[in-house]
């Protein structure tokens, strides 16, 4: 828009400037020509008066010569007897002299310059006064005047360009700020608000965008509150089920019911945790995967030692910046490690590793988080989790990986147990 406004102003201004410059230049040229011819006509009339009054005086020739000595224009007199007065080339009988000899006074302007011819009636015939102006004298001062006029036009165009640039900036910058706010809102920064400034239309657009952002935040907060409230309501019947299961007299049935209720309880807890998470406000979510994984494995190491589990941790020496918020990555690590603790007996070993895979022809650089154990592994053909589980935790982890542009894979660990690998794209510096 800024460029278009500049071009529009330049086109308009240049049209106006050219419309004035060309006629003004022509006017200057005409004025210079008229000025030179007026001077020639005045000198011709002055000499004609001298010729009429002093035609018999022998000093007339000296007077005409003295007039030419002053400079331009050049004046010559052809007496009736053929005598020529004044300096300059000899006068030859041509059509102009014949016209003047017939008693006609006239002015001629052509490519050789300008000439004024005046007939003077004296005894014993007609004398002819001719004043000549060269082509250079007709255009004297025109080039300088044209240069000044064109220079003024250029200055006006430059000023118009500067004003157009400032005007375009005043119009475009508020719009770009509103667009930037819209991009920030699109990327999850719901606290972003546009500054209400600029033209009336831009201010109205900013107010509308701010209202939309506030309404979106209200709807998200209401939705999360409703989900959280629903999850809390589910805990009451789950607790009642647990109490009823404890009252079952048959041990095998009671144990099975307790396992199912435990799975249900973890599912409800996961829903509550997800509902309580705040809306992300990261404009460009990034974090150091090495630091985040190291932080959570240090937390889980204490519980592993309490349960007699050996835990192997392999992390790269250098930071690995991934396209995921720090809280999201730590939650993902917690889900994967908690999955091992929840579904394998105490004493089962655990291995957590993070490695960086370099760019290839078909794939960008990725960080690969692996969590494996020595337990029974996943059921044959399982896609979401272990036998007898809902797989909700892995579904949450998979969704987190997909949102960041990665993926989650289930496989068999080298120790024979379950292996979960999460790939996350690396952010280039």
Please explain how this structure is put together.
This protein has 429 residues and is α+β, with helices and mostly antiparallel strands. 56% of the residues lie in helices and 16% in strands. The chain contains ten helices and twelve strands. Strands 2-1-5-4-3 form a five-stranded antiparallel β-sheet, sandwiched between helices. A five-stranded mixed β-sheet has the order 7-9-10-12-11, covered by helices on one side. Strand 11 (407-412) and strand 12 form a beta hairpin. Helix 1 (2-54) runs antiparallel to helix 5 (142-186) and helix 9 runs antiparallel to helix 10 (392-403). The chain is rod-shaped, with a radius of gyration of 50 Å. The relative contact order is 0.07. Mean pLDDT is 83; it is low at 380-384.
The count of β-strands is 12
Helix content: 55-70%
Low-confidence stretches: 380-384
Distance between the termini: 32 Å
Biggest sheet: strands side by side, in what order?
2-1-5-4-3
Counting copies of identical and different chains, the oligomeric state is: single chain
Q: Mean of the pLDDT scores?
A: 83
Radius of gyration of CA atoms, rounded to a whole number = 50 Å
* Helix vs. strand class: alpha+beta
The description of the largest β-sheet is: 5 strands, antiparallel
| Helix count, DSSP H or I runs of 4 or more residues | 10
What's the overall geometry? rod-shaped
Question: Which sequence of SSEs, written as H and E, runs from N to C?
Answer: HHEEHEEEHHHHEHEEHEEHEE
